[in-house]
Write a structure and sequence with these properties.
55% helix
């Protein structure tokens, strides 16, 4: 035990807006179970994920409601990015080959996918959050420019670097609502330069993290509860991004060269890998795309809905709703409660592809 640990460590508890969230507050009690004798091909889920992304990006080509073209373009980019990350996870999880400890890093990508759920839910609350999203992105690029300019200002070879890069950033910023006052405020914050006379401080605020973003969800109590539940999963997956003991344990367990591996049965290692890495990463990624799609179509004007409905929640022609026929869930409050399914490995194991991924 660390000496004086009470002075340097805070309690291990999920917090939203400074308030502790306990399991008893956000746990979702399931009332139905899957038929664990049924298994679905992962290619079918890949197809549905592709349909989700294709339909929602197509719908976002036309602005509507409070969202302008820039807002729609940014949302479409998120979905396209999530599709690429999903393919990356698939490639990392070579289910036919020997277990590779590097594939544990697929859980980092799963965390990225889950963070997409928080971002999309927040941005569809109000287009101002989309603007905050891109302006935060711009500020980070501008700070990188300031760093490079400051560190190379004495090097003759870099004297011509600043002008074209600054021009590029100004043009990019104009698309995101960045004004000269924004730029001068960043200069004042990062370089200590005084603001010019007559210019008022106009800071660019960071886009909310998942924890802070949950507090800003006001459109649906059900959606907010779902995100509170998924936040616990996000915290768990963050272990693999931060190199915490869980990540080290998995990589050692799945490494045939690890000295203590001989004390664990191969069948136990394979079972843990299939459920805690393969199933966890793949299903988290897939359900993140499905949830984002459901939220996007719920926010789009009705006349832009496709005839097939929301592709991930009631999609394929002549079939039952997705959440019923493919996930065994007949909860009438889907799609929000479907989001918590990503947190239940026992329930999700029934839709893992077997015997191979390819």
């Amino acid at each position: 035990m660390l000496a004086g640990h009470r002075d340097i460590l805070s309690p291990c508890v999920n917090r939203i807006g400074g308030m502790a969230l306990r399991v008893s507050q956000y746990a979702h009690i399931h009332t139905t179970d899957f038929d664990h004798g049924k298994h679905r091909e992962s290619k079918e889920f890949d197809r549905i994920a592709n349909v989700c992304v294709t339909r929602v990006t197509e719908a976002l080509k036309t602005p509507g409601g409070p969202f302008n073209q820039m807002h729609c373009n940014q949302l479409a980019d998120i979905f396209t990015s999530m599709a690429g990350t999903h393919r990356g996870i698939r490639r990392m999880l070579d289910f036919e080959g020997p277990i590779d400890p590097q594939s544990v890093d697929a859980l980092l990508l799963a965390r990225v996918q889950l963070e997409g759920v928080f971002s999309v839910c927040l941005m569809l609350e109000d287009p101002r959050y989309v603007t905050a999203y891109v302006q935060d992105h711009w500020r980070k690029q501008y700070v990188e420019y300031l760093i490079a300019k400051e560190e190379t200002k004495l090097l003759a070879r870099y004297q011509g670097f600043a002008t074209p890069e600054l021009q590029r950033l100004v043009i990019l910023g104009s698309q995101f609502g960045i004004t000269p006052a924004h730029i001068q405020t960043v200069d004042a914050e990062e370089l200590g330069m005084p603001l010019p006379a007559g210019v008022f401080e106009t800071p660019i605020h960071p886009f909310p993290t998942p924890r802070k973003g949950i507090r800003k969800i006001v459109s649906s109590p059900e959606k907010k509860r779902m995100l509170e539940r998924l936040y616990a999963k996000y915290v768990y997956l963050s272990s693999f991004a931060h190199g915490l003991p869980q990540a080290n344990l998995f990589k050692n367990m799945f490494d045939s060269r690890f000295p203590n591996r001989k004390f664990v049965r191969d069948s136990d290692v394979k079972h843990s890998y299939e459920h805690r890495v393969v199933g966890e990463a793949y299903i988290t990624s897939f359900m993140s795309i499905a949830q984002c799609t459901a939220r996007a179509f719920g926010a789009l004007p009705k006349h832009r809905h496709h005839r097939g409905g929301v592709p991930c929640m009631g999609a394929t022609r002549g079939s039952k709703p997705f959440h019923e026929s493919r996930l065994g869930n007949t909860d009438p409050e889907a799609p929000w409660r479907i989001g918590v399914m990503v947190t239940s490995p026992g329930r999700l194991s029934a839709i893992r592809k077997r015997p191979t991924w390819r």
